[in-house]
TrEMBL record:
Residues 79-179 form the Methyltransferase type domain. This is Methyltransferase domain-containing protein. It comes from the Bacteria. It holds the Pfam family Methyltransf_11. The keyword Transcription regulation does not apply. One of its GO terms (biological process) is methylation.
Amino acid sequence: MASEPRQQSAPVVRPPVWETYGPADLSAVPVFAGGFINFGYWQAVDLESPLSEGDRIRSEQDLYRHVLDSAAPGGGRAVEIGCGLGLGCALALEEYGPASITGVDIHPDQLRRARDANARLLESEPQRLRFVRGAAESLPFGDGEFDCLYSVEAAQHFPDLSAFAGEAARVLRPGGRVAVTSFFTVDGAPAHSDRLAGLLDSFASGLDIARPVSQLSDALAGAGLVDVETRSIGPQVWPGWDRWLARLWEPGTWPRNFLAAWEQRILDYYVVTATRP
């Protein structure tokens, strides 16, 4: 039986996260057409042909599908950490048939946008969809409240992966699944942080945090989760993302350096999964 939700004060938002997802509204930037705010999973898109906005939106949806296939939310209670506009929550609800979806975001502006974007679904499925403010490191839920926890391209902002892993373990019931996808450094070499700050403004500003993927997998294992697996999906992410960026950004501009960081074996894109015993 799940315990009562934790009573919490408003979470503290790091300044670059506050600006990027508040006044700046990253979802309105053309490279994130469709509003999902992720780099995309491009395996089903023909990268040799001119890319359309429809291709871009499909790539974003397919990244969600790839993660949801690993998280196995069907029939259970699912929670997304870092839900943004909530479009991934809506996709999960409509395509995967969970009993309910809770979208969590730390930014109040994102929650407002999520409720606006999903107003009809919230009205028609009030028992199955909700949006809640909370931090990944201190979730406002009771113990064992969920069967599935997933996060799509948000963990690069989490200030404390160990605290997040502990909360994931706490809010999942036994047998519950975790699936996290985002970009991390390939290993813990100290030089990676400076190199990424030199290549990519999002790391230089502190919006994205340079950490090895092993820090997340070790944190999940340390929190008592089992069957921890890490898979690179870089080949399905970075070339397509760069092809899309080329429509809007010239070679040599900082967003185009994501591909260079991957090719130089500094950064990669991963899916990390685990199970609550």
